Amino acid sequence: MNMKWLEQWLGEDWKVTPAGGATGDAYIAQQGERKLFLKRNSSPFLAVLSAEGIVPKLLWTKRMTNGDVISAQAWLNGRKLESTEMKNESVALLLQKIHSSQALLQMIQKLGKKPFLANDILNELLSILEEKVSQKGAVQKGLQYLRSSLAEVAHEELAVCHCDVNHNNWILSDDNELYLIDWDGAVIADPALDIGMLLYWYVPQSEWKSWLKHYDIEMTNSLLRRMEWYVIAQSIISLQWYTTKGKQEEASYWHDYLESLLASRAF
C-alpha cells in the first residue's frame, strides 16, 4: 500500500511509516503525540484477540474502496520480553488463557480453520523438505522418530495455538500488561505445540514442573512426549527454512540443535 495515499486518507497531518515485519503490511501512524498501529487486511480474528485482552486494543476497522481492510490498534508503549523472562508466571498465565479461550476457538473455526494435527505437520514437513536437507543423518533420524511415534502423540483436546512463541512476540506495556502479538500463523492444534517450543527454548528443564503448575497442567509423560515430538518437527522445519533462505549460520544452529534433541530424547 502507498504510504502517501494512506496519509492522505487519514488526513489531519498524519505521518505514516513502515512498522517492519515479514509481510510489509504493518504501519505506524503518528499525529503529534498520537500514535496508531495500522495493518492491512488483518484477520477478523483480531477483534476477538482484542476483546480477550491478548493483543493491544483494536480501535477501528475500515474497508477501502479497493477492497483492502485497514485496522487500527492503540499504540503500545512498552518493550519486548527478554528471553530470560519467558519463564515468568505471567507468560504461563497468558498462554493458558489463550489455550482455554472458547471465544478464540469459535472465531477461528468460523474463519474456516481446520485442526492441524501431528499427521498434518508431518505431511507438510515432508512436502517442503529438499533432498540436500532430508539426506542429513540427523534429519533422517528425526523423520524416523516422527513417523514411528505419530500414533503416540494423538491428542483430542485442541486449542487455538499461536505457533510462534518467540520472545520477540511477547510485549510488556509500561503499565505492566502482557500481550502476545503477530497471530498470522495461528492454528487449531494440540496446546503442546506452543508449550513445547516455549519450554524447550526458554525454560531450564528443572523448572518445567513449576512453570506448568502456573499454566495449570500436570507434567505427565503424555505431555512430555507430545512436546518432544513437536519440537523435533519444528527444528527440522527451521533447518529447512534457513537452508532455503541461504542463511548457513542459522541452518547450522538448527542442525546442531536437532542433533542434541535426538541425543537427549526421553522417549
CATH topology tier name of the largest domain = Aminoglycoside 3'-phosphotransferase, Chain: A, domain 2
Order of helices and strands: HEEEHEEEHHHHHEEEEHHHH
- Give, in spatial order, the strands making up the sheet with the most strands: 1-2-3-5-4
How many strands, which pairing sense, and closed or not: the largest β-sheet? 5 strands, antiparallel
**Strand-residue proportion:** 15-25%
CATH-scheme architecture of the largest domain: Alpha-Beta Complex
Number of helices: 11
What characteristic shape results from the CA principal axes?
Answer: globular
Uncertain segments are none
Helix coverage percent: 40-55%
Tell me the radius of gyration: 20 Å
Provide structural commentary.
This protein has 267 residues and is an alpha+beta fold. The protein has 2 domains: 3-75, Phosphorylase Kinase, domain 1 (2-Layer Sandwich); 80-263, Aminoglycoside 3'-phosphotransferase, Chain: A, domain 2 (Alpha-Beta Complex), CATH 3.90.1200. It is 45% helix and 17% strand. It has helices spanning 3-10, 45-51, 89-99, 102-110, 118-128, 131-134, 137-148, 192-202, 208-215, 221-244, 248-263, and strands at residues 15-18, 26-31, 34-40, 58-63, 69-74, 78-80, 159-161, 170-173, 178-180, 187-189. A hairpin with a 2-residue loop joins strand 2 and strand 3 (34-40). The radius of gyration is 20 Å and the shape is globular. The termini are far apart. It comes from Ectobacillus funiculus. This is Phosphotransferase family protein. Residues 19-216 form the Aminoglycoside phosphotransferase domain. Pfam families: APH.
